[in-house]
Amino acid sequence: MEVPFTxxxxxxxLFGLCVGSFLNVVIFRLEKEESFVTxxxxxxxxxxxxxxxxxxxxxxxxxxxGKCRYCSQxxxxxxxxxxxxxxLLFVLIFLATPYNLxxxxxxxxxxxxxxxxxxxxxxxxxxxxKILFPAIIISFLYQAIFHTSAMGNYLMASAIAxxxxxxxxxxxxxxxxxxxxxxxxxLLGFLIGxxxxxxxxxxxxxxxxILGIILxxxxxxxxxxxxxxxxxxxxGTLTAMFFGSEIIQWYFQFFTF
Length: 257
Ligand SMILES: [Zn+2]
Description:
With 257 residues, the protein is mainly α.
């Protein structure tokens, strides 16, 4: 997929940066179990209240050289990384979706949930039900209302993904796969349907294996180390969603003579 540089895409990217900044707040407050709406933003280390200059996505991080203005402690890379990723994914959503406002809104919403789950699982080896369950319900309702005739397909994709991960969960007694991943698979099936979910699952395990090999070769972890799997499931699913047809075309070119 080509990503042309246009004012419109730039605008969507900046919008994504702002949403990403909000997602960082959501993640932080999930960690602290604070309410989503009340309370001003403050430095997580020194608790100093932040002013608007400290809260500009990405730019504040660069401008402050990655350090808090008040206590000079390091600001986590999570903040600019989440903002940039949200910006890029939002641009991809607008490029990949035919001009259909409802499906664009649906994808912006679900992808935002997936970014929160990605970071939360990466940091805490846990997928918060508070985030996952609403996303499952919304994606189920969206497909049931707007793609009624394809509902069988989405249910099947969900059942395949969920069943496959559940089997791994049961066989390994929860060692290779958490139950949160099994629940997440329901959402991913509703999101990309069949047969795309097969590519999504394949890519998830492929990315996981590559990172595992890299980490093991640097002796960062052994075979038994715990690696959260939701980030790979999300990465694999989003890759299949945005680039699925390109990947399949690329793959099948090797079979045409
Ligand atoms: Zn501080």
